Every structure is written in C-alpha cells, then in structure tokens.
Amino acid sequence: MPQNSLINKYNIAGPRYTSYPTVPYWNEETFSLKKWTSSLIKSFDESNYKEGISLYIHLPFCESLCTFCGCNKRITKQHSVEDIYLNAVLKEWNLYLDLFNEKPIIKEMHLGGGTPTFFSPDNLKRLVEGILKTSRRADNHEFSFEGHPNNTTRAHLEALYSVGFRRVSYGVQDYNEKVQKAIHRIQPFENVKRVTETAREIGYTSVGHDIIFGLPFQALENIERTILNTKALLPDRLAFYSYAHVPWIKGNGQRGFNDDDLPTPEIKRKQYELGKKLLAEVGYTEIGMDHFALSTDSLYHSMVEGQLHRNFMGYTASKTQAMIGLGVSAISDSLYAFSQNEKSLEAYYRLLKENRLPVQRGHILNEEDLIIRKHILNLMCRFKTSWAENSFYFKELPDVISRLKEMELDGLIHIGVNSIEVTVKGRPFVRNICMAFDLLLQRKQPDTNLFSMTV
Ligand SMILES: C[S@@+](CC[C@H](N)C(=O)[O-])C[C@H]1O[C@@H](n2cnc3c(N)ncnc32)[C@H](O)[C@@H]1O
Ligand code: SF4
After folding, report:
1. Per-run averaged pLDDT (10 residues), the chain, 455 residues
2. Cis amide linkage into residue 114, ω under 30° from 0
3. Which pLDDT score is estimated for 280?
C-alpha cells in the first residue's frame, strides 16, 4: 500500500504506551492505597538488592508558558515556591521510606518537569542529597535531568554532577524563529550550544536534545535546518517527537495558534521521513519510537543487547522492577500496580500535610494486563515480540488475529510461527500495532478525546 494511503488508514487517535494499561483505562474500583503500598513493598523486597529501584521526581514550575506543551506544569516567576515544594517532595520520600525494611538502592534517578532548572542549583543539590542521605547510590547508577537551554547554568550542571548526575537532556524543539514565536519559546542556537558544551566540559557523558516535528508553521526546510544545527553539536541522544496536539488538556494553553497553522498529516509524515534520513546520515540509529542515539551512547548499547526498557520517563537503558514517582502528578510503577499522585499542587500539599501519601488514583494489574504489557513493551523496545509455542494469548480472539493479518498485508509486520516482527515500513506505525493487542481499548473505545493522533 502506498505511504499516503497508509497514513490515511492508520492516522487515528492512539496511546503512546508509556504504560499498559494506559492511564485512562485504569480501574479505579479495584484500586486502593493499601493495595498500592502492599504491591510496592512486595516489588521492593523482590528487587531492591538485585537491581535497585528508580526514582522519578517531577519539578513542575516554569517561568513562562510554551504554547505547544503537553506536560504537567505550573507557570510562576515566584521562586519562593522552591522551598515549599522541595520540602513536600522530601516528606513524600520519607513516607515511602517508612514502608521499607532496608535502605533503597537507587539505580536510576530522573528529574523531570516542568523545568527542573527553574530551581536554584543549591536547592536541586539539597533535594538529591536529602534522598541520598537515606538511601544508597547503586554502583552503576544513571542519574539524569531535563534542562531548559534558556536557564541552565554552569552552577546547575556542576551541582548535579557533584551528586552523581552524568546525563542531561535539553528541550530544543525547533530553531526557526517563526516556529519559536508560535510556540512562545524564543531560544537561540547559542543558548543550546552553550549548555551542551558546558555539560561536556564538566564531564557529562550523555547530552540529549529533544526536537519536534509537526509544530505550527514548521516546514520541511525547518526540519533540515534544525538537524543541521543538531549535527553541529552532535548530542549523544536525540528525541525526535511527533508534536502531540492535545488542546483538551486543561491549562496547557495550546490555543496560541490555530489548527490551520499545523502541517497536514502527509507533511508531518514527510517531516519524519526526512528527519530520519538526515539523522541516519549524521550517524544516529533509531532506538525505539521517537528516539535516536549515537553508537557511543548507553541507550544504543542497551538496544543492541536487548536491554532497552520503556517507562513513564520514556526509554531507559536498564530496567528496575520498582519505580517511585515523587512530586505532583508523578506516576509510580511496582510492576504489579501503578499509582499517580494528585495533579493539583494544592491537593498534593494538603495530603502531605496530613502525613498521607498524595496518591490520587491507580491500577492493579491482572494476569491479562501483565501478558499484554509484556507484548507492548517488547514491540516498543525491540520492534518484535514472541511467545512460547501454542500459548499465544490472543489466538482465540478473531478480532486481534484479523487486525494483525491486515497489518501484515499492509506490510507493517511479519507474522512468524511464534512471533511478530515490525518491518522497517511498519516502524512509524508501532503505536497502531500495539493497539491491536490493547484489549481494554478494543472493549471500550473512548467517547471523549483522550489520545493524540498516531501520525
Ligand atoms: C517536559 S519538557 C521538559 C524540558 C524543559 N521544560 C524544556 O522545555 O526545555 C520535555 C520535552 O517534552 C516534549 N514535549 C512537550 N510537549 C510536547 C507535545 N505537545 N508534543 C510533543 N512533545 C512535547 C518537548 O520536546 C520537551 O522538551
Ligand atoms: S516545554 Fe518545558 S518550559 Fe515550556 S511549558 Fe513545557 S515544561 Fe515548561
């Protein structure tokens, strides 16, 4: 089937599968805080000594609103919020510590946002030291943070380096001025160059850039220019995101431009194809959905060794069974259950003040969820999945089988005896392929806007 027809057929709203079940399909009725903490204790006991745990810390503040942004953030210029927030996060961490019998071993820590570099270097250091005082850093730990090129300073980079951070990713998006104006994010190349080079001088071993295609007013030549600039700085990792247009998310302010200013799905797909071709010429390998890396980066090695993992932070080079998310709206994963914190700062603070974990909702995974989750993770991380002989969970489900056969006819996958492999042509449609396995989505199609378009 020609590329354009494939786009018309497969460009539908669909999840990005940073989890399965996806958040809108979590079952609130079978979830309770007690079940969540029990599942986390079980997971912790099973895995802390073997592999350690991961921590995600959400730092939600930004000084100014970018009108494309789909993240959970709070816009303010008042830096007095820093202390209050950090104290709350450390209190949340202490409530988790009370659950465990032994010191957590921290394998991964990621500071995400919002804008972590909104906080002063001293405060970021205080936060990390507060956590490390009560835990142990794994020998092969991977600590990383998201930096905004406009406000990351040498002092930020040095402070976090001194407590074990070796990886930073910067939001770049696009270098064109008209696009930057539309998304309300004026960010000259010099700023990105400065923070990239400073991180390297200090000793960071992996610098990443996030760029986006499908932004308002973005044309093919803007993608070319952005990648030429990227080539000049050669980040070790690159996220090449498809712009997720989700204007129904409350408070994300995406109404700074009109829908007509966005490229059509056909142009968007061309932007992706062009970007992918140019990135390959520069020396980047596609790692999984949206992600590229140089062959010297740990994400590349982890892909080659089949160790790549995907969680709420995106792709990671290693896997831990337990991941605790701290901070407003943060999501945690114990393998057996998910939980999400309160999304409003006020509710988050209120629960902590009452010495309660600020969990708002969650999901306890059943046996079927665990099987589907494994296949979706395999497809997202390795572009293939397999099962033991004759044990294909979906074999009695004619809808799933016919969907997969149709995708095979369209050239997106190859169905083997006990396996499915995504073809090169099928890679851009990996979300659609995962959707074929998503029984919760198939049993109940959403009746409101929940997901961005897959193309
Ligand atoms: C939460 S931001 C944190 C980084 C930091 N606040 C900054 O803006 O530089 C992480 C990345 O998410 C991506 N992102 C945010 N909203 C998006 C959207 N609607 N569609 C695609 N990517 C998006 C951007 O590439 C951004 O750099
Ligand atoms: S893109 Fe980054 S800086 Fe801009 S609003 Fe979103 S989180 Fe804040």
Report:
1. 74 83 92 98 97 97 92 94 98 98 96 97 98 96 96 98 98 96 93 98 97 96 97 97 79 68 90 94 91 94 88 84 97 96 97 98 95 92 85 79 90 91 89 91 75 67
2. yes
3. 95
User: 423 by DSSP, 3-state: which?
Assistant: coil
148 lines ligand 2 (CB under 6 A): yes
By DSSP bridging, strand 165-173 and strand 136-147 are parallel
| CA–centroid distance, residue 435 to ligand 1 (Å) | 24
Coil, strand or helix: which one is 28? coil
Q: How far is the CA of 347 from the centre of ligand 1 (A)?
A: 24
- Which residues have C-beta within 8 Å of that of residue 161, sequence separation ≥ 6? 202, 203, 204
pLDDT for 18: 84
- Are 172 and 215 spatial neighbours (Cβ–Cβ below 8 Å)? no
**How far is 89 from 218, CA to CA, in rounded Å?**
38
Note the pLDDT of residue 7.
Answer: 76
Q: Annotate 37-99 with DSSP letters as a single string.
A: HHHHHHHHHHHHHHH-EEEEEEE-EESS--TT--S--EE---TTHHHHHHHHHHHHHHHHHTT
In short, whether 149's Cβ falls inside 6 Å of ligand 2 is: no
CA distances, 440 to each of 123, 158, 291, 380, 449 (Å): 42, 46, 27, 18, 16
**How far lies 55's CA from each of 29, 89, 323, 401, in Å?**
27, 12, 6, 38
Q: What is the pLDDT of residue 307?
A: 86
For residues 154 and 164, what is the distance between their CA atoms, to the nearest angstrom? 15
Which ligand is closest in space to the CA of residue 173? 1
3-state SS of the chain: helix, strand, coil percent to 5? 40, 20, 35
Atom from ligand 1 closest to the CA of residue 149: 9
Could you tell me if residue 134 is left (phi over 0), alpha (psi between -120 and 50 degrees) or otherwise beta? alpha
Does the pTM exceed 0.70? yes
User: Whose alpha carbon is nearest atom 6 of ligand 2?
Assistant: 69
The per-residue pLDDT for 290 is: 87
* Mutational test site, ligand 1, from 16, 67, 124, 146, max ligand atoms within 8 Å of CB: 146
Q: Which ligand is nearest to the CA of 249?
A: 1
Nearest-angstrom CA–CA distance, 404 and 427: 15
Please choose from 71, 191, 241 the residue to mutate so as to test ligand 2's pocket, defined by most ligand atoms within 8 A of CB.
Answer: 71
Residues in the chain: 455
Residue nearest to atom 7 of ligand 2 (CA): 114
∠ Cα 18 19 24 (to 5°): 105
212 lines ligand 1 (CB under 6 A): yes
